Amino acid sequence: MPPIVAEIAQLVVNGVMAGTILAVPAIGLTAIYAVLRFPNFALASHATIGAFAGYIANVKFGLPILPSVIVAFLAAGLVGVATDEVVLKQFRPSGFITTAIASIALTIALENIVRFGFGNELRGYALPIERDWRFASIRVGPQQLQNLAIAAVAMAALFSFLAFTRTGKAMRAVADNPMLASIKGINADMISRLVNFVGMGLAGLGGMLIGLDTSIDPLTGFRSILSVFAAAVVGGLGSIPGAVVGALTVGIGEELCLLFLSPDYRSVVGFVAILLVLTLRPRGILGQREY
Amino acid sequence: MENYLIAMAVSAGIYALMALGVNVIWGLAGMVNLGLVGFFAVGAYVSALLTLKAGLPIAAGMAAAALAAAAVGVAVALVTVRLRGDYLAIVTLGFAESIRIVASNTIWLTNGTDGISGIAGPWRGSLSPAAFNLLYLGVVGTIVAVAYVLAERLRASPFGRVLRAIRDDEQVAAVAGKHVALFKVKAFAIGAGALGLAGALYAHYTSYIAPDIFVPLFTLYIKLALLAGGLGNNRGAVIGAVAIVFLLESTRFVIPLVPGVSAVQGAAVRELMIAVLLIVMLRYKPTGLVPEQLPRIPVPPVPPSATARYQPTA
Questions:
Q1: Domain layout of chain B by residue ranges
Q2: Which residues pair with residue A140 across a beta bridge?
Q3: Could you say which of 3.40.1710, 2.60.40, 1.10.3470, 2.40.128 is the CATH number of the domain covering A3-280?
Q4: CA B111 from chain center: how many Å?
Q5: What does DSSP assign to residue A140?
Q6: Cα–Cα distance, A186 to A110 (Å, whole number)
Q7: Whole-prediction pTM value?
Q8: Between chains, do B94 and A274 touch, taking CB under 8 Å as contact?
Q9: Interface touch B90/A229, C-beta < 8 Å
Q10: Whole-angstrom Cα distance, residue B109 to residue A136?
Q11: Which residues make beta-bridge pairs with A134?
Q12: How confident is the model at residue B314 (pLDDT cuts 50, 70, 90)?
């Protein structure tokens, strides 16, 4: 392969990996948006909480990565239900703007609780050092492949939950038409608790997957929030397949921009993607409607 | 000690100017700006760079800062003006983060995370530090006073009335023949301009700016100031700004007194406190210390014949 083709191929592969991981928290965000109709910025701190819960399980208790990832999901999901119950739920009657502001205050509060306990230093998971695999001239790390698999399994589980179970169908019904759903006797409170558990759980899982690639600190979640929102908006806020498509688009886009931009500008690419989509097609690639 | 108090008063003035600006966007027009620190940063960098690299006088730099921030505000508002308000929340937050990332990495222009130092202050060289502080307090005080008067005029004007109508019900305002999108963009530009000017005032006062200053927490400070004072209310905005500076500064003295808390933990407690306070204010006292006074609109008495006609027949 000529070097430039090889470089582009490598970047696309990296982009697919990054995009698949990004899709996990983006699905969480878009699911919460679909049911509760506000952009929940608290997602950032829940990603951090998941990353640290996984860190405790992995480094302090010596669990392998797979069970640690489940701990990350459960911890962030439970904190998500609790904070929604105590804080955000009270704001929903006063409208989505107030709720969004409260959610950003909440994210800073939670982030600082993590900072109080763990300080600002970077931490890494206990991972075996492995040599990258090579296919033709493309390098892939075994850990990256494992992350990819975890993300794919989590998404497949979510899709089958939404498609085949009664509760999953109820959740989609509330997202589609809350009034009709309540006439059919669906308990909206239970559904909002459930969507918070699943959504924030996915955020926590995503936070840990991002951390597995690099390292974690209290800002892990906040640093990736721009890409997560970009993925959800590009795909169409409220659309779960959209979040996956959006995440892959943003992931590959961020990598391809490395051809002519320094990696430090990566998050700005997400912001530019948001601006482009809102200007050209506000409902996103797969969105049913614009809000 | 006097110098410290004057410095705090200058901070309070800068916060008050920001709160007045945000009040136009959030309090009057009901638009959410989660990236107001981004506009503050644009103002600070524009004025610092123009005076330092292009040799412009400070006043010209400040004017350019306000204009640049307003122009950026127009662009940000235009993208989202026809969509639901939460898109604006996402875009403004993304904007502020992007500004910080660009400022941290465009080293040839902004000197990256090291920041820009040696920004000129008015007659800083020829005055003693105490006299400079006093002079600057006068400058900031005058600007805040002018901004306050303008904001009051704006609030009472037909323009302000339309903004409040849009905030309360966009559709009704549109039905009444108001060009909702245009009003929103204008309101956003005015608010962003005030934020940019505040950024320039900050840069020329401290003589040093760096990307680390422009963090999302700063946005929360101003939101809290405005909420504490009373949303939609200019007097409240100024009072809230003074209150928040007092609160921030007093925690600086109290937290080190608690034994066994490291510096990082102290900072974390401070930020946690601000965030929790914002949530509590938002929840339990959304009208603030000085609630917005809405003008009483005289309702013409209904002629008896009109009421009689609509009596339900039993």
A1: 2-214
A2: A133
A3: 1.10.3470
A4: 26
A5: E
A6: 31
A7: 0.89
A8: yes
A9: yes
A10: 41
A11: A139
A12: very low
What residues does B116 pair with on adjacent strands?
B209
CB neighbour class for B235 (10 Å; exposed up to 12, middle 13-18, buried from 19): middle
Residue A135 to chain B, least CA–CA distance (Å): 34
CA nearest to B73, candidates B230, B244, B172, B199: B199
The two beta strands, B116-117 and B208-209, are: antiparallel
- Quote ipTM for the complex: 0.88
User: Could you tell me the pLDDT band of residue B217, with boundaries at 50, 70 and 90?
Assistant: confident
Chain B nearest CA to A107, separation (Å):
8
- H/E element, B6: helix B2-22
Tokens of B103: 């400022």
Q: Which amino acid is at A80?
A: G
Q: What is the mean pLDDT of residues B185-197?
A: 96
Question: Could you tell me the sign of the dihedral formed by the alpha carbons of A146, A147, A148, A150, in that order?
Answer: positive
* Structural tokens at position A206: 């995503």
**pLDDT of A106:** 96
The encoded tokens of residue A167 equal: 């509760």
Would you call A183 an interface residue with chain B, using a CB distance cutoff of 8 Å? no
Asked if A108 reaches chain B (Cβ–Cβ under 8 Å), the answer is: yes
Residue ranges per structural domain of chain A: 3-280
Q: How far apart are CA A75 and CA A59, in angstroms?
A: 16
Residues A14 and A256: beta-carbon distance below 8 Å: no
| Region of B65 on the Ramachandran plot (φ > 0 left; ψ -120 to 50 alpha; else beta) | alpha
Contact A256, A15 (CB under 8 A): yes
Q: Please state, in angstroms and rounded to a whole number, the distance separating the CA atoms of residues B65 and B75.
A: 16
DSSP 8-state secondary structure symbol assigned to residue A38: S
**Residues B217, A108 contacting (CB under 8 angstroms):** yes
- State the average pLDDT over residues A243-248: 95
Q: How far apart are CA A109 and CA A93, in angstroms?
A: 22
Distance CA A24, CA A13 (A): 18
